[in-house]
Amino acid sequence: MNLTKTSKFISLILRHRPEAIGISLDEHGWARVDELIQGISKRHPFSMEMLEEIVRTDKKQRYSFNENKTLIRANQGHSIPVDVELPEKKPPRILYHGTGEKFVNSIDRQGLLPRGRLYVHLSPDEATAKIVGARHGKPVIYQVLAGEMADQGFTFYQSVNGVWLTKKVPAEFLRKIKSE
Question: Signal sequence: where (predicted)?
Answer without folding.
Answer: none
